Amino acid sequence: MQRFVRYSGVSLVAFALAQLGLAIAYGLGNWPVVPAVLFSLAVSAIPAYLLSRVIVWPDGGHDRANTVEGSWFLLIALVGSLLTAGFVTLAESLARRHTADHATLTVIVNLSSIVATAAIWLARFTVLDRLVFRRRRPRTDPALVIPADAERAR
Question: Which H or E run contains 89?
Fold first, then answer.
């Protein structure tokens, strides 16, 4: 539960950075929606990874493991980004049928990004916690392990 709370805090920081990046790129910069979404998520991915390594899963392992974990983390972020970009593109396309006002479109794009991010968030935590950053147990030779019953008999 403690990791989940720490992950939530890190996610809020990454989420704020992504929303700010999206508002700047799409809202102020008038970028097309897909590059704006990918830019915003790229801006937040590196701080999210670094904060996750330090705050959420600090006992990840050795340098080689960190490289592998970083690759998986970025791959999962990329998949989430592509899913978010697809959802936001659909929302923007539907919204354009009803309005041409860029400020309104910016709000719709940001809100659809929030919805997509929320939908992906829990799945991302589960994959990261269970597969990517799972705690490594030291290998023990079974012949050296004393069963609990044998220990009590001594």
Answer: helix 63-96
